[in-house]
Structure to design on (489 residues):
């Protein structure tokens, strides 16, 4: 490694705690601090959404910098705001009222905004226009998901040695598609509009822009780096991924253990740690009461699910397997929001099984902490899962994961083998096939272990010993940045 650590600009469409719809915001909000702790100099840039600007506590100031961006034959004006994400980590906002002063991030009322290609094409160009006005020269732009994919070819068009572009795929399922008629808004030469460029089955993919034209490419777990190169996991881009595999690295997401710490979590009714789990029993009791479940459920295995309610998350398996799960004696609490068909699917389960199932729809950060702490198990039966964060939070909170063996779920959970030959307990339960019966078998194995308190406690303790803090992952990012900067190609 070189002695001088790089200046890194993290471009993201969402950043916790400013704006969030999913795990991308968690990563963009916590990785900068981990990089700074290793000596790098990170900064963050994101759109100035309505909700962010309305949050006066965030303390952003207008820098007076105007950002003029050409788009489809016109000039669109933006402005640059500045604040701090954490002490020493600046965060910049790209403001443009016609594009971002509206409710929601990507859509509203269950519908995506039709001008998302224009909105995020503008954001990408505005990021590049902002570079000369930042506190220090940028060595690396770390772009995240389709909303920032255009940064990679636009950066090449500038013809500069630095900054150099690294692109992170958090979820291959979101391709950032636009119809070919929107090509003029991208401000790229027509030479990019082909099979080797942004073209995707007759459309334009902004995600593909990032993966093709980046200097280095990252997925958020080692297993997912392999899966995106297969027809099952590549979402039509598996051939492109295999072609660019030489620059692909899988780096597991980390967890901010200051935010996710059962010993000091302000959202919990009682705190606890590995040395004293009595607080976790209080959390379960209070969660059952909050959900209106019968007190007798305190002696039953409580399964929690937290996250987006979409096809990817395996909700169809839960609906199909519900009777078998409840017959096994389990209780289920679901927190999340998403596609109406899957919200209705879970709502029907709660109505059919009022003594064993509850659902809360929407985003509730405090409740997500209480649910992960109060549950005995967390279940993620995902169709695919690039990394997954809920299972990492669960392990930290002494909550045993039941997961499908894909992506980061496979990388972070050790499947219970039924014995303990090495003196180490495994940390959860996995199943491979995307089938309800396979999930039910995993749930039954979990319920059986729950009935053996000593063995169940041993598994909880094994999970509590796991370390998925950002330290290791941030070091891998830093090593990748330095490799990119040293490469003279």
């Amino acid at each position: 490694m070189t002695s001088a650590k790089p200046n890194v600009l993290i471009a993201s469409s969402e950043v916790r705690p400013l704006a969030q719809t999913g795990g991308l915001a968690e990563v963009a909000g916590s990785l900068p601090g981990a990089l700074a702790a290793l000596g790098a100099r990170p900064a963050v840039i994101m759109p100035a959404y309505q909700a962010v600007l309305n949050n006066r506590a965030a303390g952003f100031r207008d820098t007076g910098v105007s950002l003029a961006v050409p788009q489809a034959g016109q000039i669109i004006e933006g402005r640059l705001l500045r604040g701090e994400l954490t002490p020493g980590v600046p965060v910049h906002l790209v403001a443009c009222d016609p594009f971002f002063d509206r409710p929601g991030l990507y859509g509203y009322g269950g519908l995506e905004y039709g001008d998302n290609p224009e909105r995020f094409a503008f954001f990408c160009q505005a990021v590049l226009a902002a570079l000369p006005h930042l506190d220090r020269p940028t060595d690396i732009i770390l772009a995240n998901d389709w909303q920032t994919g255009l940064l990679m070819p636009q950066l090449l068009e500038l013809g500069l040695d630095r900054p150099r572009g690294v692109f992170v795929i958090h979820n291959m399922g979101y391709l950032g598609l636009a119809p070919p008629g929107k090509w003029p808004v991208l401000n790229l030469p027509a030479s990019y509009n082909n099979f080797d460029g942004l073209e995707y089955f007759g459309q334009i993919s902004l995600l593909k822009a990032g993966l093709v034209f980046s200097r280095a490419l990252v997925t958020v777990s080692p297993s997912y780096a392999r899966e995106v190169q297969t027809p099952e996991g590549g979402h039509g881009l598996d051939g492109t991924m295999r072609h660019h595999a030489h620059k692909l690295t899988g780096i597991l997401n980390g967890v901010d253990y200051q935010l996710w710490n059962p010993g000091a979590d302000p959202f919990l009714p009682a705190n606890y740690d590995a040395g004293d789990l009595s607080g976790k029993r209080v959390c379960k009791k209070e969660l059952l009461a909050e959900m209106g479940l019968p007190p007798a459920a305190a002696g039953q295995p409580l399964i929690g699910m937290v996250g987006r309610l979409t096809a990817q998350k395996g909700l169809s398996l839960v609906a199909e397997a519900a009777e078998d799960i409840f017959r096994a004696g389990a209780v289920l609490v679901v927190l999340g929001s998403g596609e109406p068909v899957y919200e209705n699917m879970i709502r029907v389960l709660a109505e059919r099984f009022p003594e064993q199932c509850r659902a809360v729809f929407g985003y509730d950060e405090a409740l997500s902490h209480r649910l992960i702490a109060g549950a005995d198990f967390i279940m993620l039966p995902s169709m695919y899962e690039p990394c997954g964060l809920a299972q990492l939070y669960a392990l930290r909170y002494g909550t045993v994961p039941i997961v499908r063996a894909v992506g980061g779920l496979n990388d972070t959970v050790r499947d219970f083998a039924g014995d303990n030959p090495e003196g180490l307990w495994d940390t959860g339960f996995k199943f491979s096939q995307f089938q309800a019966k396979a999930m039910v078998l995993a749930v039954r194995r979990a319920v059986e272990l729950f009935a053996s308190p000593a063995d169940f406690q041993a598994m909880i303790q094994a999970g509590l010993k796991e370390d998925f803090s950002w330290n290791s992952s941030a070091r891998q990012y830093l090593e990748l940045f330095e490799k990119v900067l040293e490469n003279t190609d």
